[in-house]
Amino acid sequence: SLARRCHHRSAAMLDVPFLPFCAFLGTLGFLCVAMVGTWCQHWRGGFSLDGSSRTFNWHPVLMVTGLVVLYGAAALVYRIPNTWSGPKLPWKLLHGGLALGAFILSVLGLAAVFRFHNSQGTPNMYSLHSWMGLATVLLFSCQWAVGFGAFLLPWAPTWLRALYKPIHVFFGSSILMLSVASCVSGINEKLFFSLKNGTTAYKLLPAEAVFANTLGLLILLFGVLVVGALARPSWKRPDSDSPGSRQVRDALGG
What we know:
The chain has about 250 residues and is an all-alpha fold. Helix content is about 75%, strand content about 0%.
């Protein structure tokens, strides 16, 4: 029918190939890391390990790099068409390795902010941002440990993997959105604390505020696009025994 043809035509127009999408997402992720580094270097005084505010500056850089960008890359590994055929172990190791790298960076980011607070006599864990951020890292650690046990250890039974897989996928997307929310709230909190006495007030929207708010929007866009890619049916890895998976293997000569 005409309506059906129009529907298929509109769907085809909206269908974006995965690899160009990944290239765009990689550029966006790099831009987020570059911008948070520029913010801390240009407006916040740079970096050091002496316990001063320059030690704190490691916190946003490491959190955005690890908990958002690297974690997002880990989440999308199984959406790469090359992972749909052949042995899964190398891709499991890549997925787990990227997630572990993201976790290590996030722990270092927490260490930076705790060191800064303790050296300045500032209380820890009193804001919503801090509660949400720590909860995200703790949930992330549980996700990685259980995922390692279920998918990488050889003695995990098949039924357990099948049972846990949708849970793992759900919490993967949830942790990413929690990470985005933690980073965006942290950017806002830092601007409120910093742009007051002796500087142009936040409410007057100085250049630093415009730059950091733009960074927050780009982080949010990155997270939404990753979650959207994870939810897109045509980009999901077919189950190993499904007709779609067999067709992919046949097409790739597997």
